[in-house]
């Protein structure tokens, strides 16, 4: 993927390990980490914007923790 968006729960309690962040940097993958509500909005905006550009969607993954 070009981008990974991670939602860390309603209160943002989920922690993303530094190894994951380092791995994505090394691979040139943009990593976006935010509370889940904002992460979902960001994911949707990126998807919509990429469709509007030349009709192609960027490769994006969304991972959303929905409880805490």
From TrEMBL:
InterPro entries: MTH938-like_sf, NDUFAF3/AAMDC. This is Uncharacterized protein. It comes from marine sediment metagenome. The lineage of its organism: unclassified sequences, metagenomes, ecological metagenomes.
């Amino acid at each position: 993927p070009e981008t990974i968006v991670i939602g860390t729960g309603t209160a943002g309690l989920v922690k993303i390990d530094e190894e994951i962040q380092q791995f994505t940097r090394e691979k040139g993958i943009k990593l976006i980490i935010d509370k889940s509500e904002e992460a979902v909005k960001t994911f949707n905006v990126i998807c919509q914007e990429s469709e509007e550009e030349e009709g192609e969607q960027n490769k994006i993954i969304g991972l959303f923790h929905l409880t805490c």
